[in-house]
Amino acid sequence: MFYNYGSIYSQAAAAQAQSSASDAQQSAREAKTETELLRHDVDRLLLITEALWTILKKAHGHSDDELVNLVKEIDMRDGRLDGRAPKAPPQPCPGCGKMNSGKQTRCLYCGQPLPVTLFGS
Predict the structure, then answer these.
(1) Among 32, 61, 91, 103, which is most buried by a count of CB atoms within 10 Å?
(2) Do the domain assignments include residue 93?
(3) How many domains does the structure of the chain reveal?
(4) What confidence score (pLDDT) does residue 121 get?
């Protein structure tokens, strides 16, 4: 009996490629769904922020210029006017004193909870 190994190899390679393509399509669908959920969250937060700002303006007489200036001031805390919040600086652990990234919630060395600030600065 004669076997065409090239044909068998080609079929296996084609099946593997089809499987990889299917996996890639599934990953793309999941990423799109996650992106849509994040976009929804951002839109909702923008509505909430605008509502809160409107309340503050009406109740306390603040102006849009005050808000713009304060946003710029906060943005410049890291020395760059780039529309991004400053990164949290490293902080020492209250238990062992070793420095930890500002992103950590627990000490990498001893496991003790690190102090948390509401806005990370």
Answers:
(1) 91
(2) no
(3) 1
(4) 47
Number of H helices, E strands in the chain: 2, 2
Least confident of 25-29, 69-73, 81-85: 81-85
User: Are the C-beta atoms of 71 and 63 separated by less than 8 Å?
Assistant: no
Verdict on whether the full-model pTM lies above 0.70? no
43 in a structural domain: yes
115 three-class SS: coil
The residue range of the domain holding 42 is 5-62
pLDDT for res 4? 61
CA distance linking residue 91 with residue 41, whole number of Å: 30
- The pLDDT assigned to 30 comes to 93
Q: How is 19-59 classified by DSSP, letter by letter?
A: HHHHHHHHHHHHHHHHHHHHHHHHHHHHHHHHHHHHHHHHH
